[in-house]
Amino acid sequence: MSRYLHDRDWMVAALADIACQHKGKPACLIHGDTHLGNLFVEPDDTPGFFDAQVSRAPWSLEVGYHIGCSLDIEDRRRWERPLLEHYLSRLKAGGVEAPAFDEALEDYRRDLAYGYFIFAINETSFQTEAVNTAYAARFGAALVGHGRVGPGCATGR
């Protein structure tokens, strides 16, 4: 799998798959850049985000991006499923028809390629080389760990 992370054609196919799989999925407003550098915490411990690049996309793009950026590799391995379960439970508690866990996990896994792409090409005028490298490594490890190797739309997955 790791050889794919250096393959332009794989990246183009992975991004096309994200776009293809997002068709017909419910969209919501997303922040668009929920890495740790955009996080702030109010004096009362209420978190928030700076630098909103608001767009409409399925939830999985934002959740995958945030978890992929925010957790180091071992913490992500330990916490991504419980965090995803919690997210889905909060959707249900808010009256939103949430996807089943297996579908949500597949959407989350697929959308990790977006975060990898962002930090693999990100200019150092936006983030330091150290931040870009750390985040790309986190996303790369997640993609390798989940075995994300190919486009689902093209293969009927």
TrEMBL record:
SUPFAM superfamilies recorded: Protein kinase-like (PK-like)
Gene3D superfamilies the record matches: 3.90.1200.10
GO MF, one example: transferase activity
Source organism superkingdom: Bacteria
Keywords of this entry: Transferase
Protein name (database record): Phosphotransferase enzyme family protein
Organism: Paraburkholderia diazotrophica
